[in-house]
Amino acid sequence: MPNSAKAYIELGEPVPRVEQQPYAAWVIEGPLQRFPEGESSPDVSFAELCFARRTSYGGIPLTMAEVGALLNLAARTITAVHASDREVAKLKPAISAGAKHPILLVVFEQTVDGMLAHVYDDERHGLVALPQVKTDAVAALYRRAMDSCRSEQGTLFLFVAEWGKTASRYTQHESLVWRDAGALLQQFSLAASALRLNCVPMGYTGDALVRALFGDDGRFCGVGGCLVSTP
Length: 231
Ligand SMILES: Cc1cc2nc3c(=O)[nH]c(=O)nc-3n(C[C@H](O)[C@H](O)[C@H](O)COP(=O)(O)O)c2cc1C
Fold this sequence. Notes:
Layout: E1 15-16, E2 32-34, H1 46-52, H2 64-74, E3 79-82, E4 88-91, E5 103-111, E6 114-121, E7 126-129, H3 136-148, E8 155-162, H4 163-167, E9 170-171, H5 174-194, E10 198-201, H6 207-214, E11 220-229
Antiparallel strand pairs: 1-9, 2-7, 3-4, 5-6, 5-8, 6-7, 8-11, 10-11
Helix pairs in contact: 2-5, 3-6
The structure holds flavin mononucleotide (FMN).
């Protein structure tokens, strides 16, 4: 047994609530930069993909067309079933407990003017810029995330958990969100491989970066992410 209080943290057993609690999900506001429709499907079989996928380093940042193609395979909403104003079940490429899909994606873009961060709108398949990201604190935390992926360059996808979504349906929901993050990470890794892109899963949770971007009220939490690049 490792001599560490953090060796095992009891997250408890999730139990579906008898009645779903009301929860108003965060709404992405701002001008939308839509990705073009009709992305082509990669010509690789599932068996080939399973054997070919590897963590791979050393490329350059993705073009916006590549970002769109990757998000299309990894995180786009295929259908959204609105049971009520506040209850939405989404179907996406990755599995998610209760179909809650509680993980938002922040995509970092390095430009000549500095770094931009965008939130992915998975229903409209486009990006909305986050305001006020060009601070020294954000730049330092971004660098730390890149370092954890042992990379100088690439396009960082930060996974941001909105706990309230899964908590509205389950008690002791935390482990479900972490397991969703793992499923999403695998989906990104497979999708990147299918598109012949490099992908490095990020061991850093990115929580401090998430708090610098979204505030410290506990609504959002960093649950990892990945760095994708063009070989
Ligand atoms: C949760 C998780 C976190 C990881 N964190 C890092 C990381 O911070 N840096 C890194 O270079 N690789 C990271 N990896 C990649 C693993 O090292 C890699 O998956 C492993 O060596 C197996 O290699 P493969 O992905 O090529 O099969 C991570 C993988 C997972 C699943």
